[in-house]
Amino acid sequence: MDVTPYLLVQLSDPHITHPGRLISGRIDTAAALRHAVDRLLRLQPRPVAVLISGDLVDAGHPAEYANLRALLAPLLDAGLPLALLPGNHDAREPLQDMFCGLSGVLCGEPGATAIQYALDLPGPLRLVVLDSLVCGHPEGGLDESKLAHAQALLAARPDVPTLVALHHPPHATGLEVMDGMSLHQGLAGFEALIAAHPQVQRVVCGHLHRLTLGRIAHASVVSAPSTAHQLALDLRPGAPLALALEPAGWLVHAWGPGLPLVSHLALAGEPEIIRDL
To answer: What residues does the Calcineurin-like phosphoesterase domain cover (predicted)?
Structure first.
């Protein structure tokens, strides 16, 4: 039986800055996101939603969010639901000032101290978004209030397969500098939360600017690459933080009748497709 899968596209760490400004004087994050959006709009079957897993902008400035909104406008014009969550480079208030109230955009309750919510997708699949931003710190955290809210979100639909999204990875990766900036506060509570909810099939995150695979409790953990610049793969102890001008990318999560939740890596660029095999 030919069954069309449902698709959730996960973009991550676009680090949009002021118009015309380049990261490290070389990386045009706006052009990179523009390319990702264009590729996404050509994806078939049509995605049911788009998740952006943090570090939406580079410095949390209102002008950066205005630039981001313009870059994401084609997705909203196409009627694609857009789920946003903050990373350590973001600031909640200007993020919500720019996006709350826009049709099709999910970014939590206006003025809330944490951007956390759930989105029911067809299939069915439930997306639960958690806020690991700790203001003024690169590492992430889930305090008791965030964990209690997460518990309520998960307990509301225990029968529906669920994907949990947050910015900071909840496990070590061997990238020493990034491990020092992973989910720290509330890590044990988060692991207990996932363990108590067997409907959670996958946890997805950003922050690492690389594809990684891990596990917390029974659930697999997948980090998405950045839509722009990647971090160098250097697993030596004491290795410095460095950027790698490797191909950018994003994740496509697919599921449906007869298809378990499967995560695909898509790379930026215009690949040549050879069909005459």
So the answer is: 9-210
Q: Domain coordinates of the chain in residue numbers? A: 6-267
User: How far is the C-alpha of 99 from the C-alpha of 46, rounded, in Å?
Assistant: 23
SS3 string, 27-95, reads ECHHHHHHHHHHHHHCCCCCCCEEEEECCCECCCCHHHHHHHHHHHHHHHHCCCCEEEECCCCCCHHHH
For the stretch 47-80, pLDDT in tens is 999 999 999 999 999 999 999 999 999 999 999 9
CATH fold, domain 6-267, is Purple Acid Phosphatase; chain A, domain 2 (3.60.21)
Q: Which residue has the tokens 């978004």?
A: 129
Residue 66: phi, psi to the nearest 5?
A: -65, -40
Phi, psi of 28 (to 5 degrees): -90, 90
Query: For the CA atoms of 97, 170, 134, 153, what is the dihedral angle to 10 degrees?
Result: 50
The CA distance from 129 to 77, in Å, is 23
Q: Are 186 and 141 in contact (CB under 8 A)?
A: yes
CB 37: neighbour CB atoms within 10 A? 21
What does pTM read for this prediction? 0.96
Question: Residue 271: is the preceding peptide bond cis (ω within 30°)?
Answer: no
Give the angle subtended at the CA of 178 by the CAs of 177 and 181, to the nearest 5°: 105
Residue 224 sits at the vertex; the CA angle it makes with 205 and 103, to the nearest 5 degrees, is 70
* Helices and strands in the chain, H and E counts: 6, 16
Choose among 214, 271, 268, 266: nearest CA to 245. Answer: 268
Residues forming a β-bridge with 214: 221
In angstroms, the CA 50 to CA 184 distance is 27
